[in-house]
Amino acid sequence: MIYHALTKKHWLVLAILAIAIILASINPLEYPSYMLHQIGTLLMLITLFFCLKKIGLTFSSFLLYILFLVIHVIAAHYLYSYVPYNDWSIKYLHFDLNQAMGWTRNMFDRFVHLFYGLFLYPFFYRIFQVWLPSLKPKTLFLLVIQFVMATSLFYEWIEWWIAIGLSPEEAENYNGQQGDIWDAHKDMFLATIGAIMTGLVSLKAATKGNHPQ
């Protein structure tokens, strides 16, 4: 079902995001960098509401979009590079994720880029589906994958543009590169992989005669 206005369940999901923003805004590790990330949150919310009104969205695409923002907000509180996910894993699951995977850096920023592709694919698909209604699902699939790749690249450009105006320490905190010269490349790759994963599931549903997303 396509919605063009907010319903009770939409407001409930937005309330979860609002709570996440309130909690994340309490003593973030570095307030200026946190606020820079939250500008992105605001712009994404404006885009979401605009598209909901103009073209309509399924509740699932709306939900996944907001869940991505919740993850982003949590990451912003910890400057992405310092999210204690491994400490949480050890404390609550008694499992050292970093040790098991052989990771020597904080990988939460990688997770966020992966979820960008995984969770926002349905939203992007809807935009192209309305804009280019004559295209077949396989063509739309390829377009969305390319769009995720292009927007990931654009985001890395924005990060670079902002970072060159900051001090080296501030730039490192904002970018979360953690000394990896291939950080941007890996982030873009994971976003692409995430989009392909969700896209293949959606494409399979579409070929069976169901409406994707």
TrEMBL record:
The chain crosses the membrane at residues 12-29, 35-52, 59-80, 111-128, 140-158, 188-207. Signal peptide: none annotated. It comes from the Bacteria. Keywords: Membrane, Transmembrane, Transmembrane helix. InterPro entries: YjdF, YjdF-like. Pfam families: DUF2238. This is DUF2238 domain-containing protein. The lineage of its organism: Bacteria, Pseudomonadati, Pseudomonadota, Gammaproteobacteria, Moraxellales.
